[in-house]
Amino acid sequence: SENQSPAGNQQTAAYDSAFLKACRREPVPHTPVWFMRQAGRSLPEYLKVREGIPMLESCMRPDLVAEITLQPVRRHGVDAAIYFSDIVVPLKAIGIDLDIKPGVGPVVEQPIRSRADLARLRDLTPDDVSYVTEAMGILTGELGATPLIGFAGAPFTLASYLVEGGPSRNHEHTKALMYGDPQLWADLLDRLAEITTAFLKVQIEAGASAVQLFDSWVGALAPVDYRRSVLPASRKVFDAVEGLGVPRIHFGVGTGELLGPLGEAGADVVGVDWRVPLDEAARRVGPGKALQGNLDPAVLFAPTAAVEAKTDEILDAAAGLEGHVFNLGHGVLPTTDADALTRLVEYVHTRTAR
Ligand code: 1CP
């Protein structure tokens, strides 16, 4: 429908939400809050609906995706929903032989390491992920004025899983390819930029009101290598989804030294982990961008008074920013007390009410 087209997105019910206003650096009634990995972690209602259903299969069932996406919105009163999926879903959708193993993460049967392997990364079409379009259709109806965040993995982080064959601490095969065969590396990241762009466009077309690019592991790189070998591909993604009426968020972990170049990649909002205070992060990112973050997810295991004291520090550091979206500095940890998250949402809303 016209309402779900990119051009029509500005007319959707979520346009005036605190979250989208903060992303656009407009005045807000309160600081908006959502949590990375808020969907599909330890919530009892999540574990119940997932029982006996493998992760990737659950990502392809629109009714289940919609239910899991809505659960943290109902329970915590967060200011945005994040679509329940995983960064490797579009790779599975184009036929890469991968699985998400419980307690491990994404595992790729045959890693991508040669020029011949590149041919396995074909284009992604909307038909490959029709379940995403269907689930987002359900969700935009159910969510009303609550924005829905779509997402994708950034080229570097996707490349890391494809080249290593699974989760990696040191990214040694990935870096060997990046330094050893710069042309193959550039072609690989270019391919992944195209797949990621196509996947984000499907989500925007289906009604996502913002998109986040997860470059979770990019903090493993020095700025010089990020600029030369990764930034061009990430910028290509952001450029391709510019002007569609949806804010673009860029997130990575351990990116203190990379905040400047991350800002140059083109997002409207830059996610910051807990290692750099937001006022300092704003200086590094440069003007014209909102920031998202940055409570250490481990702080939620401390008593409420300590959580509130750390939250105060963040809100004070954010006081001079043009746009601030409160979030954790990385995803919710699996054993986090759900009530601590609910209390945190309420605390930020109350403390920042204008
Ligand atoms: O945020 C949400 O609540 C939506 C759901 C979501 C998102 C945004 C999932 C569900 N995965 C992701 C993104 C994702 N997946 C990222 C980027 C965000 C981050 O840095 O946390 C990454 C790196 C992955 C890869 C991945 N998938 C891992 C990490 C492995 C590693 O390298 O350490 C894992 C464990 C998964 C599996 C996964 N993804 C999501 C869930 C609920 C699960 C667990 C599924 C299960 O085993 O049942």
UniProtKB/TrEMBL annotation:
It catalyses: uroporphyrinogen III + 4 H(+) = coproporphyrinogen III + 4 CO2. Signal peptide: none annotated. Belongs to the uroporphyrinogen decarboxylase family. Its EC number is 4.1.1.37. Pathway: Porphyrin-containing compound metabolism; protoporphyrin-IX biosynthesis; coproporphyrinogen-III from 5-aminolevulinate: step 4/4. One of its GO terms (molecular function) is uroporphyrinogen decarboxylase activity. The gene is hemE. GO terms for cellular component: cytosol. Keywords: Cytoplasm, Decarboxylase, Lyase, Porphyrin biosynthesis. It is found in: Cytoplasm. Homodimer. This is Uroporphyrinogen decarboxylase. PROSITE patterns: UROD_1, UROD_2.
